[in-house]
Amino acid sequence: MLRKTAVLVSLTALLVAPTMAFAQDDMVVMGDDIAEACPAPANLSGEIPVGALFTISGAASVYGSVQQAAVQMAVDQINEAGFLGDATINILFEDSASENEQAIAAMTKLVDEDAVVAVIGPTLSREAFSADPIAQEAGVVVLGVSNTASGITDMGDFVFRNSLPEASVIPGTVADTIAAAEITSAGLLYANDDDFTVSGFEVMADELANADVTIVGEETFATGDTDFNAQLTNLIGASPDAIFVSALAAEATPIIQQARALGFTGPIVGGNGFNSPAVLAQTGEDSNGLIVGAAWNGASPNELSNAFVEAFSEATGNPPDQFAAQAYTGAWLIASAIRCADSVDRTDIRDSLAALPEIDTPLGMFTFDEDRNPVHPSITQIAQDGFFVPLISEEVSSS
Ligand code: 1QQ
After folding, report:
1. Ligand 1 pocket, 178 CB below 6 A?
2. Structural class in CATH, domain 166-294+380-390
3. Cα(213) to centroid of ligand 1, in Å?
4. Which CATH superfamily is domain 11-164+299-368 in?
5. Beta-carbon neighbour count of residue 324 at 10 Å?
6. Tag placement on the chain: N or C end, fewer CB within 10 Å?
7. pLDDT tens digits, residue range 246-274?
């Protein structure tokens, strides 16, 4: 459990670093840059309702459950640190249950009944395409922390995301895979009924073509499928150096297992859906050599990331994943926008979020571009013995 320490400001801290006055006595947290950029708010008081809409149950719950834990931890830190002066965030969690209709109902409740000033989430891009127009229509900021499909922020000027889109991550994944594994051919497999998996596939196909990698075959499946032997047999029969897969975790796991069972020993390269440690835990040795592009890796040398890993591990008993790091950062970004706005007006918060300066975060130095998409470094990882490690200079087996 997170320690509920009182906010103690030591005399030394005041003398050495007056801008640290909000920080907890023994914890490194994310708000330093904003504490310097924006004075302590003078106009805020009471509880400020903020929504968090995640798929806490359902097929994609491996993502939403860690997002919930990470946002709760961030909100505890924000409130305990007095980051919003006399006010605290009242975080209201809703479960989209991996269903678009449920996401719409939950977003409507948060925006209309709970009168939240901003919403973090929803988890899946297809949920965002369903539910975000409700927030946009009501003039409420919605900050995606795991939406990676193309076109998310095109829904409107209240729609932001801090999750690097596949279009930003996959080019690096393709380039690093070519450099490390010297692939010249690839097969592609993707779910053709999900906004994120289709978008990821399109980016993979474009990037492979740009890099002159021969595409030996493209195969599709539907979300919820469990048997991929027919598609994998077709692809493996064409002898690709690597297989690129755009899938959510529930399908990623049997795809890896079945590809290995069919004798494919080359790199399997996954998109963002593979970034859950649940995929590695469920596939064991089969995921050795799996290559996945990410917005964050636990090996990052960044001090805020290290502090986040320590605090999250202590709070939950498990190390965080990329989705936790993005959700944690997202909650601090919303708090930062509220602090800098010194207002709970929904439009003031939107303008403040869009105008945040570049700040240090567990994801690295972070800023929004003019389209409200994130700008920060990405990383290519390879799975080794149940963990994602940076790919750079790691050995990759080829078929
Ligand atoms: C999306 C994704 C998923 C993997 C989120 C968990 O990237 O739906 O956009």
Report:
1. no
2. alpha beta
3. 26
4. Response regulator (3.40.50.2300)
5. 29
6. N
7. 999 999 999 999 999 999 999 999 999 99
